[in-house]
């Protein structure tokens, strides 16, 4: 089964803004793929929602209880030999987690991650629209 990791911005769009497109993405993911979240994204998700959208914290809790996913650990300090650089150093944690968890696809809306997609053989880095179109 294909393993798909989601970035924080995708989850915030799905939980906070509830667009039909994001609901379609989440439904497709839960029906057909193994969803992977990294601890870095989980922590960032709680931080962003509690800081910027505190009224949506109950939706976040319900979402995470019902949403099936595998959680992988993101180290606080990345190994020196990690070969990929991202302009935003925080994004390196997400990319490292995707590589070390051996996911097939990383879905993100982050331009810093999308711009390095052509340099990555695995995981495939796609926007939510690209993923829905391709899969």
Number of helices: 7
Overall residue-averaged pLDDT value = 92
Proportion in helices: 40-55%
Low-confidence stretches: none
Say what the CATH topology is.
Answer: Rossmann fold
Radius of gyration from CA coordinates: 14 Å
Based on the model shown, name its key terms.
135 residues; alpha/beta; Rossmann fold; five-stranded parallel β-sheet
Detailed description of the structure:
By secondary structure, the chain is α/β, with parallel strands linked by helices. The chain has one domain: Rossmann fold, CATH 3.40.50.1010. Helices cover 52% and strands 13% of the residues. The chain has 7 helices and 5 strands. The protein has helices at 8-17, 20-32, 39-52, 57-66, 89-100, 111-114, 128-134, and strands spanning 3-6, 34-38, 70-72, 105-107, 124-126. The protein has a 5-stranded parallel β-sheet with strand order 3-2-1-4-5. Helix 6 links the parallel strand 4 (105-107) and strand 5. The radius of gyration is 14 Å and the shape is globular. The two termini are 13 Å apart. The model has no long low-confidence stretch (mean pLDDT 92).
